[in-house]
Design goal:
The chain is an alpha+beta fold and about 160 residues long. It contains 4 helices and 9 strands. It is globular. It starts with a strand and ends in a 10-residue tail after the last helix.
Length: about 160
């Protein structure tokens, strides 16, 4: 039973982790995946933010800020980023062009919270959210070496906290 809504989708207080069942009619594996914003995704978001400050409203190719990781695009489920159109081919799922939404900018500045998990059916169909509300700083600093203040330029990289 959802507790509330986030961006028009159900938000559950908790949700079982990656439980699966088999469809009795077709035999297909029915699984709901809990996906969270990883530290790597949050870090890449700060890099895109630095680029976007210089070019507001323009889309930037993922290779300019996230050359290694593959989960960055999942931020679209929280409405933190949006994808540009075009430049994709038949062989790719995405154009690779991204920009931060207005809501995403508020999230990056630590003014908004998002649910910890998005719930995906069959790995890509969004069905809701779960977990506590967290801010950008929580995703970067919890158990990690990143400093939100340093990444956002609030304090210089050379200073120690």
């Amino acid at each position: 039973m959802p507790v509330t809504l986030f961006k028009g989708m159900p938000w559950h207080e908790s949700y079982p982790a990656d439980e699966a069942d088999t469809c009795p009619e077709c035999g297909r594996l029915l699984k709901v995946y809990r996906r969270k914003i990883t530290t790597a995704m949050a870090y890449s978001l700060t890099k895109l933010h630095k680029i976007q400050k210089l070019k507001p409203d323009q889309f930037t190719h993922i290779m300019k800020f996230d050359a290694v990781r593959g989960d960055f695009a999942k931020l679209k489920f929280w409405k933190i980023i949006e994808e540009g159109e075009g430049n994709g081919s038949i062989d790719t799922k995405s154009s690779g062009m991204w920009r931060i939404t207005q809501y995403g900018l508020s999230f990056i500045m630590n003014n908004e919270e998002v649910p910890k998990y998005c719930l995906l059916k069959w790995g890509s169909e969004m069905i809701g959210f779960a977990g506590p509300a967290l801010k950008m700083k929580d995703f970067l600093e919890h158990g990690n070496k990143f400093s939100y203040a340093k990444l956002m330029g609030i304090i210089p990289e050379s200073e120690e906290e």
